[in-house]
Amino acid sequence: MLVSREAFDEMIARELDALPPEFAGKMENVEVASEDWPSEEEMRAMGLSREEVLAGLYVGVPLDRRRTGYSSLPDRITLYRAVICAGARSRTEIRRRIRETLLHEIGHHFGLGEEDLP
């Protein structure tokens, strides 16, 4: 089931609004966006082949690695619509996948590694 980009972005916005205040209040200098698919460059940078799945990507400097006076372009969390929607049977399942992917990528923003995240 593939939803429109507008519907997908609305689902992302709802999930961001639903974040617990202790997380939302600490997300600093982060932009959340959506794309249909990860680029070849993003896949290569992650060491993934086209056959592998990348539902979301965090690019930036995690909070625990920022130094005093840190100033940079916003970090970016990208959720990939076609990947997240692939095989979903309902909007509810898409929203669940968005939430899981978003929380995973926010974990990277807070400095958690892959081994620390579900």
What would your notes on this structure say?
The protein has a three-stranded mixed β-sheet with strand order 1-3-2. 40% of the residues lie in helices and 14% in strands. The protein starts with a helix and ends in a 9-residue tail after the last helix. The protein is α+β, with helices and mostly antiparallel strands.
Q: Tell me the helix content.
A: 25-40%
User: Number of domains in the coordinates?
Assistant: 1
Rough shape?
globular
Instruction: List the uncertain runs.
Output: none
Q: Any idea what the CATH architecture is?
A: 2-Layer Sandwich
Q: Give the tally of β-strands.
A: 3
* Rg (C-alpha, Å): 14 Å
Enter the CATH topology name: Zincin-like
Number of helices: 5
What is the percentage of strand-forming residues? Answer: 5-15%
Described by its quaternary structure, the protein is single chain
Biggest sheet: strand arrangement: 1-3-2
User: What is the H/E string?
Assistant: HHEHEEHH
Mean pLDDT metric? 89
The major β-sheet equals:
3 strands, mixed
Terminal residue distance: 24 Å
Helix-strand makeup class: alpha+beta
Topology readout:
Elements: H1 5-17, H2 21-24, E1 30-35, H3 40-45, E2 56-59, E3 75-80, H4 81-85, H5 91-109
Parallel strand pairs: 1-3
Antiparallel strand pairs: 2-3
Helix pairs in contact: 1-5
